[in-house]
Amino acid sequence: MKALHIAATGMKAQELNVEVISNNVANMRTTGYKKQRADFQDLLYQNLRRMGAETSTTGTIVPTGVQIGSGVKTAATARIMTQGTLEATGKELDVAIRGEGFFQIQLPDGNTGYTRDGSFERDANGTIVTIDGYTVDPGIDIPEDSRDITISSDGTVQVIDGNGATNNLGQIQLARFVNKSGLEAIGDNLYLETDASGAPQIDSPGTDGYGDLQQSYLEMANVDAVTEIADLISAQRAYEMNSRIIQAADEMYSTTTNIR
């Protein structure tokens, strides 16, 4: 009887499903977080009677056949890259992307990370950095005596210096990917380029296909609490049903072994 093993794969799949949902809920207030979804595929089938086989010398064809499945497996934990809501913060170095694109971050190992988290700060040298101290690429240095930092929708950073003059310090660039769901999440709200994502395409915010920037806003996670609760209930019920199948298969085994 294969029912025990088939139901076991179902329980394992729903256990992983609950883990994905729990991670989404845990990151409901994580800036720029993109939720994940567990995708499943059925396993190999045993053909007891193959469809399309001939059943007579006259060429009669089996219309459906007999196939017994062997359970389910996890195919992917796809990341849903939809836009999160923008929340006003009032902080001049907070920046949200409205539309497509990622901020480029210079990592300590020399690689470039990508993020939707625009909660930026200034380090001791005045350089715009992430909350972990990683430089936002391209590096923009804000002089010590500057005030009234302005980040326009196209990424241009301007300040007023000590003499009251307006200075243009540079422009924040955005990166796009052919398959942004193929980026590798490494934690700290950062992603890395992969063969699946394709190479980054760099351009200015607001240009064709790129989102624009909103100063003093942050993008919140795109996690919907009601949807996650509904998915959690569905996963829990599926887990319970698979456990009942294991219980029923065990009782059938017990009945068979008690036959005299």
Automatic annotation (TrEMBL):
Domain Flagellar hook protein FlgE/F/G-like D1: 96-159
Record bears the keyword Metal-binding: no
Keywords (A to Z) from UniProt: Bacterial flagellum, Cell projection, Cilium, Flagellum
GO cellular component entries: bacterial-type flagellum basal body, distal rod
Pfam families on file: Flg_bb_rod, Flg_bbr_C, LlgE_F_G_D1
Subcellular locations according to the entry: Bacterial flagellum basal body
Source species, domain of life: Bacteria
GO terms for biological process, alphabetical: bacterial-type flagellum-dependent swarming motility
Tagged with keyword Magnesium: no
Residue span(s) of domain Flagellar basal-body/hook protein C-terminal: 214-259
Main location: other
InterPro entries recorded: Flag_bb_rod_N, Flagellar_basal_body_rod_CS, Flagellar_FlgE/F/G, Flg_bb/hook_C_dom, FlgE/F/G-like, FlgG_G_neg, LlgE_F_G-like_D1
Domain called Flagellar basal body rod protein N-terminal: residue spans: 5-34
Family that this chain belongs to: Belongs to the flagella basal body rod proteins family.
Subunit structure: The basal body constitutes a major portion of the flagellar organelle and consists of four rings (L,P,S, and M) mounted on a central rod. The rod consists of about 26 subunits of FlgG in the distal portion, and FlgB, FlgC and FlgF are thought to build up the proximal portion of the rod with about 6 subunits each.
Name assigned to this protein: Flagellar basal-body rod protein FlgG
Gene: flgG
